[in-house]
Structure formats: structure tokens, C-alpha cells
Amino acid sequence: MTEPTVRVRFAPAPTGMLHVGGARTALFNYLFARRAGGTFLLRSEDTDASRSSLTAESSIAADLHWLGISWDEGPDIGGAWGPYRQSERQEHYGLAAARLMERELAYPCFCSPEELDAERVASEAKGVAPKYSGKCRGLTMAQRRALETQGRRPALRFIMPPRDIYVEDLVRGAVHFPGGLIGDFVVVKSDGVPAYNFAAVVDDSAMEISHVIRGDEHLPNTPRQVALYEALDMPLPLFAHVSMILAPDHHKLSKRHGATAVSEYRDRGFLAEALINYLALLGWSPGNDREFFRLEELVDAFSLERISKGPAIFDHAKLLWFNGQYLRAKPVAERAALFAAWARRDDRLASLAELSDDEWLVTLAAAISDHVGVLADVAKETATVLAEPSQIDGETKAALAHPASRKAVAELGAVARRCGTDRRAFAAATARAALADIGVRTGAKGRALYRPMRLAVTRQEHGIELPVLLPLLGPQRVAARISAALDVSAPGQEAQASG
After folding, report:
1. pLDDT of 48 over the 70 cut
2. Based on the number of CB atoms within 10 Å of its own CB, is 123 exposed (0-12), middle (13-18) or buried (19 or more)?
């Protein structure tokens, strides 16, 4: 028996940004399609004209592309089952609605919003789940015409069969929806716009979607959709409902928990490959302890059978860890180029000449990578390295009071002055062995050598090791800082100042 062709879709409403939950749904559909050699399509569910926009649609597409998720059919590239915007598919909905009316499986409903609200309030007062009473179902043609004469524009309601509905979900297993819980529901609104469940069924059927893989917040929609498929004599797709992504407090992920939009993560300097890897592991497991996957490796490893039924917890600290690992795994030259691009975003660093020096950038990348969790940290870390030191304090003066230490620091200053603007020569002259030679010549050893040098240049006890830090600062900065330190801490300076 030949396996059916896999066709899956990601169908966001273009009313805002792509959030991590939607991105994970898109990813799972993409991985499933690519693993099966099937088709992944993008559909824009833009029936809410007041909130939908082409700008949001383009933004969602851009975020998916940034993540590395591509599609085979969609609004931007077309395809044999188009159009791929619901706003352009009105004819399909009209034909399906007419078929329901012809089969007497739907009827016009003239109830006003106020009347429906009153029904809902009455049901809640009785402790009963709200359900449409069906009172418009029995209207005669004469009654309908009379209501239309009054200017009422009817919605179209589908007659929900009262029977139990069973679905064999590919993630959750057998799911039972008891009959009688769902009332007749609107399939076409009074303004002619198709309701979500109706449009999704018509489109999924017309586009021959084989598997509907979506978040489990859509599970309550499933019995309505199953009933519509059957009423329209359309073959049912297979359903797979993926658990929600929750915050660490086990509430729905929201802005109060931090960034939720993919674009926010991109703008903060997360790497696409780190985010996609992390999202894949939210609710899915490869079946072993492996954590790091490239996108193509995820395709090979993915299966619906390994999707968890329980909710996934979004751990921001774990995502930061992932991102740091991916950053540090990049070749240092590639990392350096990324650091330069992000440093230039900061006004304090935009005109820094060193950002055009590839060797300097490689040194910087090696020096600060352990402190960079996201690329947005680069500017702060770079500015910290280059920041002008504070005024010379007593600790620095005391360190420079030792004759051998002072002589060693003075020799380092002389080396810096001789190098002038030649950063490469200065890097060679301040390598680990070269600094040790200064100690040999001046008699300063160990702590008496390196601590005074660091204090004279940075006023800090700890930091990046000197053979790395000094070339980053460059000969001119080092010479000026050492000169100032030696001048202020010169023997007799305090006495002269007090006199």
C-alpha cells in the first residue's frame, strides 16, 4: 500500500509578530514534511481585515526565513493550490456554504450580539456551559424574510450533530468529544467573512493537507472541524496536537515572562541556529541525551512519536546557555565579524578604528567570548575593555612604590611609546614571554610584575590576561595610562601635593 503524500501547513493570522509557540509549530511541520519528502506550505489566515496586514505577513515570513524554515508553497511564491491568503479565497467559502445550505446542514441566524450575550449570561447563572440555543434553526421562510426586512443581516450557523466524536490524535492518542456539548456554531459571519473553523476546513481540504500539526489550544476546535469535514464529504486529515509552551511558573508564556516574539530574540543577538535547536527540544526528544542539532540533523531525527503530551517549559537560562555554546563554537574569524557588526550598533563604538582591524577583532573575540551570552552583550563588553580607568588610587600608588615593580611598569610604557601606532609590533612586544623578559631585566617577579602593570593600565586587580589585554588597548592607550600612573605615584608626589 502506497503511503499518502505528506502535505502540511503553517497558517498564522498576520495580526502581529511571530511568537516562539508559532515558530515551534512551523518548525515541527517543516521537519515532518522534510523527513517524509513531502510539502510544507505557508498560508495567511487574514480574514480579520481590521487586524491583519501585509506588513505583519511579511514580518512573519522574514522571521521564518531567519530561522532557516523555508516553504514550498505560499503567498510569496504561489503554488498549484493557491491563492494562499484567505482574503483571496472567498469563492471557495461561498461554494462550501452553499453546499451546507443545500443539504440543510446550516441555517441563517438573526440573533443580535445582545441576544447571544443574554443567552450566555443565563447559562452561566444556571452553572451550565454556554451553548447556542438553536432558536433560529426553526424559523420559517416568512420569519426569515421579515427579519431581513428589519435590516438584520444573518450569520450562517452549522447544525452540530449531537453524537460523540472520536479522533485518533497522533500525539495525544484517542480523544473523545462527548456529543451535545457544542451548540450550532457560526461558519459565516453576518458580514460574509468565514469563521476560523469553517475557513480552515475548506482550505485544508482544498489544499489536500494530509496532517494538521498544531498547538493543543486548537484541540477544542477539532470536533467542530471533524463535523464540517463529514458534512462536506471531505476526507479527514490526520491530527497531531502539540502541547503548549509554558513559562517557568507554569502559566502561559507572555510578555511578563520576557521576550516571546522571534524578532525580539533576533534583535537581542540570539543566533538563529541556537533558537531553532532550543525550540525543537521544547516538547520533542530525540530519545537520547543528545542536545545539539543542526537543522538538517533535526530533519533526520524528527518524528511525531517522540513529541511529549505534557507542556514544555520555556527556560530562558537554558536558551542563553545554548546561544553561548553556539557562539563559542563558531570559528573565531566568523565570531569576530559578528562582534564587529554588533559593536558598531553602539554609538560609543561606531567610529572605533580597531573595528576595521581583523587581527584586533580576533583578539577581542577570544578575550570576551566567555562573557557574551548574546550578541547584544558585545558592545558592553568591548566598552568595558576600552573604558578609561578611574583616578589613580592608593592601591595603585602602593604597587608602584616598589622600585623593581615601578621599573618594570616604566619599561612597559617605553615599549608602548616605541611601538607608536603599530598594534602588531606592540602585540609581539607584550606577548607572555616578552613580559616575562621585562621581569627578568627589572628584577620584578610574579605578582610584583603583573599586578602593578595591570593596576597602572586598568586600576583593576583582575581581568583579561595582560598578553591579550595590552594589544586590545593598543600602544597609545597603554603609554598614556602608564605615564599618568607613574607621574601621580612618583616618589615625593604626595608630599609635594600636601605642601
Report:
1. yes
2. middle
